[in-house]
């Protein structure tokens, strides 16, 4: 049992950091092990944002000199960005092992992503014009405080609270997932894909690379692959209902859109609220009411339904 949530403001930016923290904290009972955010800020021209980590939280208490390794791994990322001609404009140390870089780069983004991760110990969480993906162990408040997310200004966001069932409690297994190496595509998911390995192998044959063994990453890469072939977001999501087997509800975000999809069995919960200015959706109504405590009308989407909203 996990919790997923999403929100989108139409035609304006807002403090989506604080709003998503409130929504995910209210879903803590659905998943206390880790929390993740995909936040979409207002893009700056010619700027990309890289979020990456060079260790896991638990490594800090492992007993060996991880601090020296962290320093070396970060230096390797710096060197490789420079080698490919990426100009780093700003560096922030979110935690001792997780970093945020703003950079300018007009080359092949896949080549850049591959080259960074071919270095020892570096794992990219996201690269995007607007997307910033943050995930770590702990509930929404713990992660938000560690990464200073309250006050983050943007148009839309998705998030996830995870209860570890079939994989480790670590950052790599936490959601959301970025669709490597596509800019600004992220997914959160509640459910299970029964054709995970078949779908993954097909996408790998098409040249895609996976960073985890989580079925949610397949959804992210599948959507990005379909869009790369010419589908718009809604068409890609409708196709996913037929081609991804299992019980699932997922939320996907791109640079300017938010979408949700439920499988034809509709076994995994989703509640929606929509007004002229705002759309909120979550596994439980309590998450939406954490942002809108006054009286609101919510509803459940139908089985097999796909909905997409524009920022």
Describe the fold and architecture:
Helices cover 28% and strands 31% of the residues. It has 311 residues and is an alpha+beta fold. It folds into 2 domains: 3-38 and 138-310, Glutamine Phosphoribosylpyrophosphate, subunit 1, domain 1 (4-Layer Sandwich); 44-128, Alpha-Beta Plaits (2-Layer Sandwich). Strands 8-3-10-1-16-15 form a 6-stranded antiparallel beta sheet. Helix 2 packs antiparallel against helix 3, helix 5 crosses helix 6 (215-228) and helix 6 (215-228) packs across helix 7. The longest helix has 18 residues, at 66-83.
Q: Give the integer mean of the pLDDT values.
A: 92
Oligomer: single chain
What is the name of the CATH architecture of the largest domain?
Answer: 4-Layer Sandwich
Strand content: 25-35%
Strand order of the largest sheet: 8-3-10-1-16-15
Q: Radius of gyration in whole Å, from Cα?
A: 18 Å
CATH class of the largest domain: Alpha Beta
Query: Can you tell me the CATH topology of the largest domain?
Result: Glutamine Phosphoribosylpyrophosphate, subunit 1, domain 1
* CATH superfamily annotation of the largest domain: Aminohydrolase, N-terminal nucleophile (Ntn) domain
How many domain units?
A: 2
E-strand count? 17
Number of alpha- plus pi-helical segments: 8
Structural class: alpha+beta
**Largest sheet descriptor:** 6 strands, antiparallel
Uncertain residue ranges: none
